[in-house]
Fold this protein.
Amino acid sequence: FLGDAVERNFEVWGYTFNQKLLSSDLEGNSRDPRNYEDAVNMLKDTINNRLLYLDNHLVNLYDNVIN
């Protein structure tokens, strides 16, 4: 059904399945929470970091929108 699409996809994105890449971010911090509390804190940190980014770049984002 998919033909060679699976192989072509793996040729392009296969490196992303590397276990070392999946288990740590670029700073080497673990992405695998050890318990529920760690998972919730990671989610909160991600949301807070995203909101800070949006707050700091809101003017730039607005300037790039066609009004």
